[in-house]
Amino acid sequence: xxxxxxxxxxxxxxxxxxxxxxxxxxxxxxxxxxxxxxxxxxxxxxxxxxxxxxxxxxxxxxxxxxxxxxxxxxxxxxxxxxxxxxxxxxxxxxxxxxxxxxxxxxxxxxxxxxxxxxxxxxxxxxxxxxxxxxxxxxxxxxxxxxxxxxxxxxxxxxxxxxxxxxxxxxxxxxxxxxxxxxxxxxxxxxxxxxxxxxxxxxxxxxxxxxxxxxxxxxxxxxxxx
Length: 225
Description:
Radius of gyration: 18 Å
Low-confidence stretches: 1-21
Strand content: under 5%
């Protein structure tokens, strides 16, 4: 119980120090944690605390100096326990890729996909999406275009998540495949993203229209999600 309380207090303190793109969302998550603690529902309180911590880590990572430092930090937090490790695997795989640690990125991406087979949790959609995106980008580094296309389509077959519904899917592999003329595959991927990205604010239809016109959209921040 004390460990859970310290985790919650730490998350609250971090929330006060970080940018707040949606204060209402943070307040809702904190209220849910408080309610679970009052009800002495420790599994639910722990789950919500880890979800809040992961959200705050996502914000903090945007200002960290290097992907290598982020990876070290995430590995320290993740540990060996699947309860704490599995939710962080998608971000660990992405950080390893950005740090240029290719074998480590591949291993973490495969670990994320394997973890996703054991049930549908709040992080499962991210694990499926990011795991396939990383493996596809690694395949493309070795000019394995067909494999990269398969991974991109698999990334679009995710059940979704709160982060995929908000900021949206990762478009780095789609951009790279567009650069190789793989328009049909990218269009199929973009259309599949419509199944889970309800908060796209008109971006998705615009990108589909541009790709159909033979252009490469400005994917902006979605290249880094």
